[in-house]
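Thread: quick sanity check before group meeting

JM: Hey all, I'm pulling together slides for Thursday and realized we never actually wrote out the predicted structure for the chain we discussed last week. Dropping the sequence here so it's in one place. If anyone has concerns about the input, flag it before I start.
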Amino acid sequence: MDSLDPASSAVIAIPVQRPPRIWKFWGTALWGLLIFAAMFAGQMAVVGWFVLRQDGPIDMAAAIHVVGGGLTISLSVIAGLPAVLAALWLATRMSGTPFAEYLALRGTSWINFVIGAVALGVLVMGWDAVSRAAGHEVTPGFMGEVLQSARADGALWLLAIAFCIAAPVSEELFSRGFLYRGWSESFLGAPGGILLSSIVWTALHLQYDWFFFGEVFSIGLLLGFLRYRFNSTWLTIFVHGVNNLAAVVQTFMLAGHG
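JM (edit): ok, ran it. Output follows.
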C-alpha cells in the first residue's frame, strides 16, 4: 500500500516560464542594428540581382545607373519589408512578448486617424511655405528622378506600393514600433524614446539634403508623439503612408507641369 502514501508520491516538476520582457536601451540598440542589417540585406539583394543581370562590363557608372532606377528602388524597398518582419519576429520572440503586443499593433479610433492626418497636413504645409519663402525646391529632386525612371519602366504602380505601403510598414515597425518601445521604457523615457527613434529614422533618409532632413525629422517627432499619445503603431503606419502618398502625388503633378 506504499502507493497510497503521499510521501512516496513522485514530485511532478512544473516548468517555470520566463516572464515576457522588453529590451531596454542597449538591447534595443543591438537588436535595432540587426533589424537594420536585415533591411539593408533584403534591399541589396535586389540591387545586386539587377546589377549582375546587366549586359556588358559591370563598372561604377553602370551600377549607379541601376541603383538609381525607379524599378530597382521600388523592388528593393518592397524586398526589405519581409526581411524587417523576420528580424522583428526574432527579436520579439526572444523577448517572450507577443509580436503584436510588443510593437503596439493595436487599433485606434477613426478620430485619431483624422487627428494624425490633419496634424501631418499642417506640418507639411508649414514646411512647404518655408521652402517657397527660402527659394528651395518643394519636393526633393531625388523623388522626381525616381518617379520619371519608374514611369519609363512602366513601374509606377510598384513605386506606389513601395513608397506608400512597404516603406511605411517596415520603417514604422522598426522605428515607432520596436525602437520607441524599448527606448521609452529605458532611462530615456517617452521624450527620449521619441527623440532618439526620430533621429535614427531620419538617418535612414540619406538621399535628401539638409533642408528635407529637417522636414523628415519633424515628421518623425510627430509620428513619435502620435505613437506615445495613442499607443498604436497602426496609426503611425497610416499617417506615414498618407505622407508618402501625398509626396508621390505632389511630385507627379509638379513633374507633369515641368
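AS: nice. The first helix runs from residue 25 to 52. Residues 36 and 84 are 7 Å apart (CA to CA).
JM: adding both to the slides.
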